[in-house]
Structure formats: structure tokens, C-alpha cells
Amino acid sequence: MLRKTRHFARGRAAAAGRIDAANSSNLKYRLDVPAALRLPFDGRGNAPQLVAARKQERASRKRDAGAGCPTTGGYMAEREGRCALRNEHSNEAGQASWELEGGSDADVFRTAMRRMVGGVTVIATRHAGRPWGMTVSAFTPVCMDPPTLLVCVNSRTVTASDILRDGRFAVNLLSQAQLHVSQLCSAAGSDKYVDDHVVPAALLPSRVVMPILRDSTVSFDCKVAEVRPVGSHNVVIAIIESILAPMSRRPLLYGEGKYLRGVGIDDFATVERA
Ligand SMILES: Cc1cc2nc3c(=O)[nH]c(=O)nc-3n(C[C@H](O)[C@H](O)[C@H](O)COP(=O)(O)O)c2cc1C
Fold first, then answer.
1. DSSP H/E element including 136
2. Å from CA of 236 to ligand 1 middle
3. What are 102-140's pLDDT values in tens digits?
4. Which terminus of the chain faces fewer neighbouring Cβ atoms within 10 Å, N or C?
5. Is 272 a member of any domain?
6. How far is residue 248 CA from its own chain's centroid?
């Protein structure tokens, strides 16, 4: 009886506009409501707003059902903007169609990797006694105990030789304010001295030995633990000796062959609604 009373109260609240129509479709109560109490509603205990909301939702499910999204039958896919994928996966004859398809093919892999969006780092070493930087996106944390990271560095670069020689380097995660540093440090074959972009040694804790770039979101001073050559690159695994992070900066991103700024999904929704 308690359940019935509560359900009835919710129906009333909905009728009075106190329950949001969009949420009310989740309410499960109509069968429990005694007949005598249903009269002010639709004959089944439902408030008029609920009836309208349910009708709208049923119509929308029906419309989406034929869409055939493999994950959710189209319903959630359309809400979440995933239906474009659904349409690209098959042509009119129902055969699979891919924009990109390949096996062990470097060009296809390179093109596929353009779809990955990630942060950008500059690996800083010392070259001819001066701070030197190389733009690298192949960076990943490995484990927390001990704090370990890895980077993949083309073995023919100046940076790769610096790392092998000294067994030390710093990883600087770039902020949007460092776009020009990323451009400087990715120009193949040209000098990549970063003297103008480092934090002066006097402002660093004494244990930090490698070049730390100004305006980075975070910097790791590292000691090489292992270098494993894989094809054209060295996978460099390193133990983190020091971590430095200034007040929060906005990260620089790279993907689809260009530099990007991230926008939080919630922020985006706000912009869309505005
Ligand atoms: C956004 C971006 C990410 C890059 N990531 C890597 C990487 O992860 N590993 C790598 O070896 N080269 C990477 N490169 C290319 C190197 O920065 C570039 O080849 C290198 O600086 C050339 O050095 P060198 O003049 O000593 O040959 C990247 C370039 C850009 C623009």
C-alpha cells in the first residue's frame, strides 16, 4: 500500500509539473494504482504529461529501430551522435565498406594513426652542452611503482643519440602556449636548441638535471632504465626522478594531422545550448 501511495503521489507531482517529463518515462507505477485513485489521470494512473512523454519516446524508438546501429539498434546511437559510423560500416547492399582497410602496411597504419588524438611532449636532452628538444607524441606512463614512463624515438634523430649517450632526458608535456616550441622541435634536420624556452637552473630544485621547458603542463626528469630498438624507433623506458607541474595550463593536443585544443564535452554542450 505504501508503494501505491508513493506512486500515486509521483503521478500527482508529474501532473502538477513537479516531475520533469523527460525523466518521468522511467517511473514504474501504473499497474499498482487502485482504480479509485486513477480517475483524475488517464484511466491507468498516468498523468497527462507522462502519457505525452511516453508516446513521444515510443515514436522515437520506433523511428530509430530500423536504423540498425550494431551497438544499440540506433536509439542511443542517434542521441550520442554515433549514427554516422553506423552508415559508413555498410553500403546499400549490406556489404562492409571501410574508408581505410589494410594489413601490415606502413602507409595505412600512418593514416590510421592520424585518427588518434593525444597530448604532445618535447623530449629535452643536452646536445653540445646546450638544451635540445624533440617533439614526440609517442609517450605513455608505464607504471606507478616505481614511477616509470616510455617514449618512442626515431633512432636516427639527434635526440636518440643524446639519450643513448647520457642515459638521461626530460619529458615536457606541452601546453597550448608552447605551440611554437612544438613546431621548432619537430623540424627534421634543423637545429632544435631550446635555450630560450627553458626554466633557468636557479629556479629549479637542485635534484633536477635535465632541461625543463617553461609553460609545460608537467615535466618529468628521467633516468633511462632500458632502450629496446623496434624497427625504426627506440622504445625508451625510463624511471621518473622528479616531477614539476606549475599552476594548471591548457594542454596542447595533436590529431588528424593538426594541432588541436580540447573542449570538455560538458562545456561543448553548454556552448551548443547557448
Ligand atoms: C606532433 C608531432 C609528434 C611527433 N611524435 C614523434 C614521436 O613520437 N616519435 C618520433 O620519433 N618522432 C616524432 N615526431 C617527429 C619528430 O619530432 C621529428 O622527426 C624530429 O624532431 C626530427 O629530429 P632530427 O632533426 O634530429 O632528425 C613528431 C612530430 C610531430 C609534429
1. strand 130-136
2. 14
3. 998 999 999 999 999 999 999 999 999 999 999 999 999
4. C
5. no
6. 18
CA distance 252 to 66: 41
For the record, the C-alpha cell of 107 comes out as 602507409
Sign of the dihedral through C-alpha 222, 227, 228, 229: positive
Grid cell 507531482 is found at 13
Q: Is 168 helix (H, G, I), strand (E, B) or coil?
A: strand
Domain limits at 135? 118-259
| Residue in this structure with the C-alpha cell 633512432, named with its chain if needed | 155
Q: Are 135 and 220 spatial neighbours (Cβ–Cβ below 8 Å)?
A: no
- 242 C-alpha to ligand 1 centroid (Å): 24
**Cβ contact 54:19 at 8 Å:** no
* Residue found by looking up cell 559508413 in the block: 88
C-alpha cell at 23: 525523466
Cell matching residue 28: 514504474
CA-closest candidate to residue 145, choices 242, 240, 243: 240
Do 133 and 254 lie in one domain? The reply is: yes
Residue 132 shares a structural domain with residue 240? yes
Cis (ω within 30 of 0) for the bond into 40?
A: no
With a CB cutoff of 8 Å and minimum separation 6, the contacts of 165 are: none
Q: pTM higher than 0.85, yes or no?
A: no
For residue 187, the CA-to-ligand 1 centroid distance in Å is 8
Q: Alpha helix locations (H) across the chain?
A: 2-15, 21-24, 35-38, 48-65, 75-79, 83-89, 106-113, 158-166, 179-184, 265-273
| CA 196 – CA 98 distance, rounded (Å) | 46
**246 found inside a domain:** yes
Is the CB of residue 237 below 6 angstroms from any atom belonging to ligand 1? no
> Is residue 218 lining ligand 1, measured as CB closer than 6 Å?
no
